[in-house]
Amino acid sequence: MSVLTRDEAQTRARLLDVQRYEIELDLTTGEETFDSRTVIHFTARAAGDTFFEVKPATLRSVSLDGQPLDPAALVENRLALTGLAEGPHELRVEAEMTYSHTGEGLHRFTDPVDGETYTYTQLFMEDVQRVFAAFDQPDLKAAFDLTVTAPEGWTVLANGITEQQEDGRWKAATTPLLSTYFVALAAGPWHSITTEHAGLPFGLHCRRSLAPYLDADAEELFEITRQCFDRYHEKFDEPYPFDSYDQAFVPEFNAGAMENPGLVTFRDEFVYRSAVTDTERQTRAMVVAHEMAHMWFGDLVTLRWWDDIWLNESFAEYMGYQTLTEATRFTDTWVDFGIVRKAWGYDADQRPSTHPVAPDPEAVPDTASAMLNFDGISYAKGASALRQLVTWLGEKDFLAGINTHFKRHKFGNATLADFIDNLASATDRDVHAWAEKWLRTTGVDTLTPVVAENGGSWTLAVEQDGDRPHRIAVGAYDTDPARPGQLVLRERFETDVPATEPVTRAGARPALVLLNDGDFSYAKVRLDTQSWETALRSLSGLPDSLARAVVWNSARDMVRDGQLEPAAYLEAARAHLPYESDLAIVQGVLTFATGQVVGRYLEAGARPAALALLTELTRDLIRRTEDGDNPGLRLTAVRHFVDCAAQPHTVQEWLADGSVPGGPELDPELRWRVLYRLAVLGATTEAEIAAELARDPSATGEEGAARCRAALPDPAAKAAAWAAMFEGDALSNYLFTATAQGFWQPEQADLVREYVARFYADAVPLAARRGPAIAEAAGRYAFPGFAVDAEAVALGEACLSRDDLLPALRRKLTDQVDDLRRALAVRDA
Q1: Contacts of residue 473, Cβ cutoff 8 Å, sequence gap at least 6
Q2: Which stretches make up the ERAP1-like C-terminal domain (predicted)?
Q3: Mind listing the pLDDT tens digit for each residue in 175-218?
Q4: What CA–CA distance (Å, rounded) separates 745 from 530?
Q5: What is the pLDDT of residues 632-688, one digit of tens each?
Q6: Other C-beta atoms within 10 Å of 331: how many?
Q7: How far apart are CA 813 and CA 243, in angstroms?
Q8: SS3 state at 45
Q9: How far apart are CA 789 and CA 827, in angstroms?
Q10: With 0-12 CB in 10 A as exposed, 13-18 as middle and 19+ as buried, what is 714?
Q11: Quick one: three-class SS letters along 149-169?
């Protein structure tokens, strides 16, 4: 398939002005394909040649200004329009299109619970071409008229309000000017809950089989939506620019959500069938806030080319967390950001694939390269940079610049230069110089304190590995003499890095000096020797959760950099998590401890003792929560106890009883989690997996069964799972992921050793055959990450030397192989 280059897009944008699309889709023609008819009204500013894109199963007819064009002239996904005369034109395209089962284009899903079928679009980047013909690039905005023929009993949702016509077809209100990738459709027998707010219709939608779970959370979701909507209208001068606000929870969705104007689509795991923690509810609320921010930054004002994708994502990421903190009951969201999202950014920024938050346009020459930048840098690092910018500028000037940006570019497109110019118009500070240092550079600065005592005062100098300017807070903490293990804040002061001279403060040196207290900047933080010794004794005694998150991140970074023994990290977790009050920290530390420290950084021989330590830690947390006062902490402890179980007996008893003693009851999520661990340990059978699937025949149940079957320590089970992933194309994106998640187990290293080399041989043709979504899933979930040895690294490097890798697969393998190198370095440190 031809990818669109930046040069081609610029040439086409100079030539064409696209006014309107008329799109008719017929979803009643069968289970494999649907019919697509498109009329594009556009003007050529001068005589010239161009092309449009479409990816049909069958291209039936094409006409330009009433004159037929040969469908056979389609080359891959392009059909040339040659000899265009200056002036208005009408392009008509009729095609048969293929439904997707990988979350790209028009995805079709049949619910195993009740047999109902649902479809929805995900048209990001180039996938609009899987649904209708288009001049497919973000700066050729147009109005869209959408008409859909759907089976009886279905409801059709779109960017605008939809109505069913007398002939049975559904027609959506004409949209304002949109980029092609924002066109949205969700059709099926949805369960819908509607309300009104600020004079606009708001809706929540999900599969009918999930109706009771959405009903249970509808008021919470609407409340979050209203609170964020109102807060954005306090921040932004431009009103919400669309005629309705629907949120559809759709099956087998690849991302967390998609900011389609007026119709945001979410992965329907956010409709909770089982118990969740309040931190997980906070995450869902953040996604609601994030996607709503996109209605202004992304939808109303859209990037001109994909090098500025960070403008969309970093802004929405920052604004989502900040608005949630200001407007909702979730007031500690930046702790979760610091412990989870920033770690994602730090990791990405230290790999060979790192890139600036705002890469040079030449670094994003085409759509294939642009797809690779949806990572922790564009989201978490970019949001961290904006948070630092707000700290430096002040929120008043920041919002003034943002509102100027919206006013100047509404319903149009903008670039990084436009964004920076608009911010600069609101302040005397040199925003352009800030942008060069923060947005055009790669890597993570490291800040190390140098503390000295001088009689009745102490001094602080900050050694900096890197050259970005930072405005940080420094926390000075003393040991509380009345409460052993507790720390008290003496003072918190701000300083600039780099500084012209050390900072001098009155009094004896503090027990703990913490750089970046409050976590307002983006940098790895080290502790001086005395402060680290204090942290080891009293980390859980730090009074502020964000301060504790900064220290835990420092420990995490030191492990990854080979400066702290992995076992020492586990001992710190064992000592302090039983007293930790912030659930985001508990979840983040346990996830790193189990997934990275035990899963990769420790030698195989040290794994049993490490799992035993984590088992004891989670058992302590379970005991601590017996009074029922902290169900989220108890649920987290139970989950990780299951994941760390080295012997099956306790969790087998829980499964048989249907409950953990003292609670919680084993809901579907916990039952599948226990059964998965039993499969890994060889303590369950295919018959028991089938029985559990009969008990829970949902889509989630099918995924749980696939995961369990792939995890069985049996050669035949491994062969069947491998064949399903790599030799056939029947698995949907979710079933592929579930199978891959179950396949590799450290406990089964000898059994799966032969598949390590096979992965590289089989992943390359799989990616070429099934496309970017499955390529990304294969690189992320089917990669043999447990195999931390020089041979595995050599195999990965050999594969990366090939010139036939799909870009999505190459990027994932580059990152995974680098993570293996890091794990080896940690082991050798």
Answers
A1: 492, 493, 494, 516, 517, 518, 520
A2: 512-822
A3: 999 999 999 999 999 999 999 999 999 999 999 999 999 999 99
A4: 40
A5: 999 999 999 999 999 999 999 999 999 999 999 999 999 999 999 999 999 999 999
A6: 12
A7: 43
A8: coil
A9: 10
A10: middle
A11: ECCCCCEEEECCCEEECCCCC
- List of residues 6+ apart from 350 with CB closer than 8 A: 443, 444, 560
Give SS3 for 783: coil
Rounded Cα gap, residues 548 and 554, in angstroms: 10
Q: Determine whether 668 is exposed, middle or buried from the number of CB atoms within 10 Å of its CB (0-12, 13-18, 19+).
A: middle
- Distance separating alpha carbons of residues 401 and 109, to the nearest angstrom: 44
Residue of 104, 115, 96, 106 whose CA lies nearest to 33: 96
Nearest to 97 by CA among 209, 185, 188: 185
CA pair distance 252, 267, nearest whole angstrom: 7
**Contact predicate 445/465, CB 8 Å:** yes
Q: Measured between alpha carbons, how far is 512 from 502 in angstroms, rounded to an integer?
A: 17
**Burial of residue 483 (number of CB atoms within 10 Å: 0-12, 13-18, 19+):** exposed
Over 70: is that where the pLDDT of 1 sits? no
Q: How far apart are CA 346 and CA 327, in angstroms?
A: 28
Distances, alpha carbon 239 to alpha carbons 243, 293, 404, in Å:
11, 12, 14
d(CA 476, CA 474): 7
Q: Which two tokens stand for residue 728?
A: 């056939």
3-state secondary structure of 346: helix
Please report how many Cα atoms fall inside a 13 Å half-sphere around the Cα of residue 250, on the Cβ side: 32
Neighbour-count burial for 747-782, b at 16+ CB within 10 Å, e otherwise: bbeeebeebbbebbebbbebbeebbbbbbbbbbebb
Element (H, E) at 606: none
- 640, 614 Cβ separation under 8 angstroms: yes
- Rounded Cα gap, residues 590 and 678, in angstroms: 20
Helix (H) / strand (E) element for 813: namely helix 807-828
For residue 171, is pLDDT > 90?
yes
Catalytic-residue membership of 31: no
The per-residue pLDDT for range 587-606, each reduced to its tens digit, is: 999 999 999 999 999 999 99
How confident is the model over 536-544, as a mean pLDDT?
96
User: What's the gap between Cα 679 and its chain centre?
Assistant: 29
φ/ψ of residue 34, rounded to 5: -140, 160
Tokens representing residue 404 in the block: 């100027």
Asked if 509 contacts 534 with a C-beta cutoff of 8 angstroms, the reply is no
Helices in 410-544 by DSSP H: which ranges?
Answer: 416-424, 431-438, 529-538
Cβ atoms of 654 and 666 within 8 Å: the answer is: yes
| DSSP secondary structure letter of residue 194 | E
Token representation of residue 361: 């346009």
At 484 the pLDDT is 86
CA distance 654 to 172: 51
What is the Cα–Cα distance from 347 to 96, expressed in whole angstroms? 43
Give the CA angle between residues 497, 500, 506 to the nearest 5°.
Answer: 85
Q: Is 139 left (phi over 0), alpha (psi -120 to 50) or beta?
A: alpha
Residues 6+ apart with CB under 8 A from 479: 486, 487, 488, 511, 534, 538
The CA distance from 50 to 4, in Å, is 12
Phi first, then psi: what are they for 163, rounded to 5°? -135, 145
Question: Do the bridges between strand 470-479 and strand 512-515 make them parallel or antiparallel, or are there none, so unpaired?
Answer: antiparallel
- pLDDT one-digit tens code per residue, 722-740: 999 999 999 999 999 999 9
CA-based radius of gyration for the chain: 27
